[in-house]
Design brief:
The structure is a single chain. The protein is mainly beta. The protein has a single domain (2-319), classed as 6 Propeller (Neuraminidase). It has helices spanning 15-18, 285-290, 315-319; strands at residues 2-5, 7-8, 21-26, 31-36, 47-52, 58-62, 67-72, 78-83, 86-91, 97-99, 111-119, 122-129, 137-143, 148-156, 159-167, 170-177, 182-189, 194-195, 199-203, 210-216, 222-228, 235-242, 248-255, 260-268, 271-278, 298-301. Strands 1-23-22-21-20 form a 5-stranded mixed beta sheet, with no helix packed on it. Strands 15, 16, 17, 18 and 19 form a 5-stranded antiparallel beta sheet that branches. It has a 4-stranded antiparallel beta sheet with strand order 2-26-25-24, with no helix packed on it. The radius of gyration is 18 Å and the shape is globular. The chain starts with a strand and ends with a helix.
């Protein structure tokens, strides 16, 4: 197994932005967007952010709630963002933000939208129980053509990393519900809004750390998983697993930041780099002092030649949103 040391990419001296960063996405040459889910332990607002890899400048746009994801579109400045319990269309050039979906987890209290993955049919998104205790969070398909919201599951706790790719007439979906410490696979019939029975593809239950965000390698032979460690450790970890073997093929170590939330493979300056967000969530003042890089994004080298290109919704699709 190869081990690679990552380095902090940005010093998040602003503890508000470093509390719970997630969802990095490539949104143009040398630009990566990400969300700060909430600006502090008691905050009910978050933001969309855009990091310039060349200059290190980070721009921030406040949002009217806590975002779980933000996906750029082909229209500059326009994002589809999961905020609280609805998908929204957010224009960072004007500040306009309006809902384009029904409410998730209707009749359920104490959940908000969390991680998601875009694909040509729409967005597969999950929610999380804010108390991290009950199996009441949903997994959903939001279809962009008719803006319908279809519940796929209603028994998750903290729906996290997802990857999706075509599988014949359907889609192969890999999904993480963090407390289960497993990666499961489904076949998704997007037209009918149905999942097949789940199949466990990676069993990580022997670990004392928890899988969070996930991306696939360009060849779809492996997945790269960020691990959230609520305990003490000299570094955080991101690991690459072979899907057929379950073997750890590479580990990236993030010094001074054990709570890693999401990975991203991004092509920059002719090379594929790993970017990873980390969080200072729930850290006491004493623990925060032990981990001064908690909340900072990290970058590291990889051996990959190509990175997976994220799906961007087209202008024609966006016209259907009114």
């Amino acid at each position: 197994m190869q081990t690679i040391l990552a380095e902090p990419l940005l010093d998040t001296a602003d503890d508000d932005l470093g509390y719970l960063p997630e969802g990095p996405v490539s949104c143009g040459e040398g630009l990566v967007s990400w969300v700060a889910i909430q600006h502090g332990a008691d905050a009910v607002l978050g933001s969309l952010n855009e990091l310039n890899l060349a200059t290190g400048e980070n721009r921030c746009w406040p949002l009217p709630g806590r975002p779980g994801f933000a996906f750029p579109t082909e229209q500059p400045g326009l994002f589809l963002v999961g905020i609280e319990r609805r998908v929204h269309l957010f224009d960072r050039t004007t500040g306009e933000c309006r809902p384009v979906s029904d409410e998730v987890d209707e009749g359920v209290e104490g959940t908000i939208i969390n991680d998601a993955v875009p694909f040509p049919g729409g967005i597969v998104l999950g929610t999380k129980d804010l108390a991290f205790a009950e199996k009441k969070a949903g997994l959903y398909l939001w279809r962009i053509d008719d803006q319908s919201l279809v519940q796929l599951r209603d028994d998750q706790v903290c729906s996290n990393g997802k990857v999706i790719w075509p599988d014949g007439d359907h889609w192969r979906l890999l999904d993480i519900d963090t407390p289960t410490q497993t990666v499961v696979e489904y076949r998704l019939d997007a037209e009918q809004g149905r999942l097949s029975e789940e199949r466990v593809v990676l069993d990580l239950t022997e670990l004392d750390i928890f899988p969070d965000g996930m991306v696939a390698t360009a060849d779809r032979q492996s997945v790269i998983i960020a691990f959230y460690n609520p305990g003490d450790a000299p570094h955080g970890v991101v690991r690459q697993y072979g899907l057929e073997t379950g073997v750890v093929e590479c580990e990236w170590q993030l010094p001074g930041s054990p709570q890693v939330t999401c990975p991203l493979l991004v092509k920059w300056k002719g090379e594929v780099q790993l970017l990873a967000t980390t969080a200072a969530e729930n850290m006491s003042t004493e623990r925060r002092a032990r981990y001064p890089q908690a909340g900072s994004p990290f970058s590291a080298s990889t051996s990959f030649k190509e990175s997976t290109v994220p799906y961007w919704f087209t202008g024609d699709q966006l016209k259907g949103l009114g």
